[in-house]
Specification:
The complex is a heterodimer.
Chain A: H1 5-22, H2 28-52, E1 64-72, E2 77-83, H3 87-104, H4 112-131, H5 135-144, H6 146-156, H7 161-190, H8 195-201, H9 206-209, H10 212-226, H11 235-242, H12 245-255, H13 257-270, H14 272-298, H15 303-323, H16 327-358, H17 369-372, H18 374-387, H19 394-408, H20 415-441, H21 457-475, H22 478-492
Helix pairs in contact in A: 1-2, 1-4, 2-3, 2-4, 3-4, 3-12, 3-16, 4-5, 4-6, 5-7, 6-7, 7-10, 7-11, 8-13, 10-13, 11-12, 11-15, 12-16, 13-14, 13-15, 13-16, 14-15, 14-20, 15-16, 15-19, 15-20, 16-18, 16-19, 16-21, 16-22, 18-20, 18-21, 19-20, 19-21
Chain B: H1 7-25, H2 30-50, E1 56-58, E2 63-65, H3 67-90, H4 98-117, H5 121-139, H6 145-176, H7 181-188, H8 197-214, H9 223-229, H10 232-256, H11 262-287, H12 293-317, H13 324-354, H14 365-368, H15 370-384, H16 390-404, H17 408-434, H18 447-465, H19 468-479
Antiparallel strand pairs in B: 1-2
Helix pairs in contact in B: 1-2, 1-4, 2-3, 2-4, 3-4, 3-10, 3-13, 3-18, 3-19, 4-5, 4-10, 5-6, 5-10, 6-8, 6-9, 8-10, 9-10, 9-12, 10-12, 10-13, 11-12, 11-17, 12-13, 12-16, 12-17, 13-15, 13-16, 13-18, 13-19, 15-17, 15-18, 16-17, 16-18
Classes of the chains: A mainly alpha, B mainly alpha.
Amino acid sequence: MGFNWLTTILFLPVAGAIVIALYRGANERLIKRLAAVFTLIPLALAIYLFIAFDRSAGAAGLVQFEENYLWIGPLNAYYHLGVDGLSMPLLLLTTLLGFLAVLISWKVHDRPREFFAWLLLLETSIIGVFVSLDLLLFFIMWEIEVIPMYFLISIWGSGRREYSAIKYVLYTLFGSAFMLAGILSLYFTTGSLSMLEISRQGLGMVQSIMPAGAIFWLLFIGFAVKLPMFPLHTWLPDAHTDAPTAVSVMLAGVLIKMGGYGMIRLCVSMFPDTAQQYAQIMIILALIGILYGAAVTLMQTDIKRMIAYSSISHMGYVLLGIFALGQVSLTGAALQMFSHGIVTGLLFAMAGLLIHNVGVRDLRQLGGLARQVPVMTAVFSIAGLASLGLPLTSGFAAEFLIFVGSYSSTTVPHLHVYTIIAIIGVVLTAGYILWMLQQAFYGPVKKEYNKVKDADGMEKFYMFLLVALIILVGVYPAILTDMFKLGIAPIAGMF
Amino acid sequence: MNLTLFVPELTLAAAAVAVILLDLFVRDKRWLAWLSLAALVTAGGVAIGMWHGEFGALFNNMLAVDGFAIFFKVLFAGIAILVVLASTDYIGKFERFQGEYYALLLMATLGMMLMAATADLISLYIALELTSISLYVLVGFLKDRKSTEASLKYLLLGAIASAVLLYGMALVFGFTGQTQLGAIAQALQGVSLAGSPGLLMGIVLMIAGFGFKIAAVPFQMWVPDVYEGAPTPITAFLSVGSKAAGFAIILRIFHSAFGLPDWLAANWGMIFAVVAIVSMIVGNVTAIPQTNIKRMLGYSSIAQAGYLMVGLAALGFAPATSVMGQSAIIFFLTSYALTNLGAFIAIIAISNQIGSDNIADYAGMGRRAPLLALALTLCLISLIGMPPAAGFMAKFYVFRAAVLNDLLWLVIIAVINSVISAYYYLRVVKVMWLGKAASPENLPSSTAPRFALAVCCLGVLFIGIVPGLFLRLAELAGKLFQF
């Protein structure tokens, strides 16, 4: 098997967390440097894997860099890691945002030891979700993420942070409670915990013992809470708004992608018939999410809350793309997950920086900042335009694929009507993004903000990095879509 | 009869007498703790040595020495060791009667070991009473108003429960003409439902009697007051040892005597399923408003009994040859013992210093006693049933057994209850890490409890991350029934 790349990537952050927690002599500077090192190496390794990934057509549906060891004999559970075309880009995204989250948190001075330890543990658990191929391991990673999130939001957050933190925890646990029941049923009906084996064999035998629909829904609820799907989304605005900046970035950037990933990986690929049967309901819920999310976003005045609500709308596109059940639409959904990760990650980082430097988070009080902070204005505008899907940005590529894919998909009736309704959402998005930019950065210059500092060197570094990525993916989306297709082709082939 | 099989029990009985005698002569009462520890370690060690030896029966098939009994003997010895370690500080609260304290603790442990080994209704009753009477006294050891009230309450309700149990046993005896578990099982073959309402009545009454021991709703009335009033190490002992002993005896009887015919097993399986649901809901919902941490853990232990009974329900619905239900319960009990003892030891260490059991007074413990707070946090997370702690694996294993026996509906109720429980467990975590400390000074803690706590926490993590070894042990223990 050679070198255990994925294990190394998976456990380096948590090793860093342990070092930081136990190394009593470390001062704040050293802690931050350690955190940066322990997230930079996984990023470098992930980039290497991304490049070394076999993209040939023969690799479609194959898992690469696989590691498989017996873990719990009596349960038939394996320590089974691997990435395919679907999870590889998400792994890259997680390690990237994990590293940037450390840079974004450079100005955290309150209890830094605990903060960075929790942040690194969070990164490990998210990576674990994307690389696990064993259901038990997947679920454990899924659950572990809750604990660091609870502490990160409730200690370093703002506003009603304790309320938001416990709300987040209860929603997540509620969803994963159903997911656990679903995993147990799946285990019961197939006798296996291996995701690969279950998808490969299909669930032919399941219907005889337990209705596949029941298992599908049990699993789906867990993912729908995380995505979040309307009407299970109400934790998201609170958690995003009150979380510290780096955590908002992780939350919007990768955490909620776990929901979409799980839907594709478990719900759709293991239960193709059931997914098709209920696709229409899902798409209607997706449309409600898109339009309702966008409409509510229009009414927000808190800058972070606004971006948070826009996530609900954007995740609606992901849900639409998934349940249009076509090769193109699924690829679009996966690309949208990646694109939303970098775009919204950047938006949250910028919003956090703005709030930190200006000290104001109410859009109605901001204004005219373009003169005072030109760099931030430019980056914020690019991120905003990417979020509304301007051509040459990643947002455009993703949404275009979703719309084309769902319009042309034949697996679900009336899809082109739904697609046209969904496109209305784009108009609303343009509305709130432009309004936000105009409120914050344009209009008459306000004197009280004359002394506001613009981004410093490190901040410019991560901003420009993300901007470059947004444009790279926008101009040349094949760098990701070629890979996504390898993972999605066998799934889409079932319809 | 081979008395070498009885060495662990004999050791404890002798040590209990020796501790009382030694109490008369030594000034430094720490010797008493050392002697008790030595006896428990010997008893546990001998029991471990018997695991690979020959099994057998004692006293005319009154007691079984099989893998199941040996597993529990080791478990009880381990629990008692941790409780003794946790008591060393606490015991300073009472000047006198330290010898009696340790002696009674040893006697209660002896009773629990006998409970796990019992293979006859008569020896069952004797073992149960030996445990109960020792515990009645231990609960009242603080001699203040709350402790005395708790002891009296425990005694009165316990006596009623014993009477109900005895009545149930009498009915079963009347129907089968046997007291030996294997003989009862034989007599029950071919009995039909229509011909034996009295038998079912007897079984229901026995469930009620045992329900008191394991603190299942509606026999849980004593729990909050007794947990609050008793000396905290005894509360820990009650919540873990007494519960494990109760489940051991239920497993033994319901597997050996009432396991067949299938209609009978399905009947009591359903009773346990219903009691499980009620216990989980009542335990979790009433735990939410509690302000005293011992009371809260009392209600939480009711809920935990509910999760365990999900395993009993699975046992009832499983085919008689399957060991999944038994091994799930054994595994859950092991991980629960480590988790709950860890939580209580941390509470003893903290409360002893701040002189309060109120959750609000735990504010700022994350700063004042970071290691204790971290340990307590880990144990609470394990009680919620979240990975990577042992509680997750335990629940996973029990729920798996239930799902495999077509009890998905019960599992869904149980997992939703786990979510409810997260609310009150995390409240303590929140207070410790987010609350403002009443004073900035650090809390000191002494070596023995710290050692015990470290054992618990490492065990919780070990079982949570690589549970294979303990799962295999639990499976073996579940298989090795002699009767």
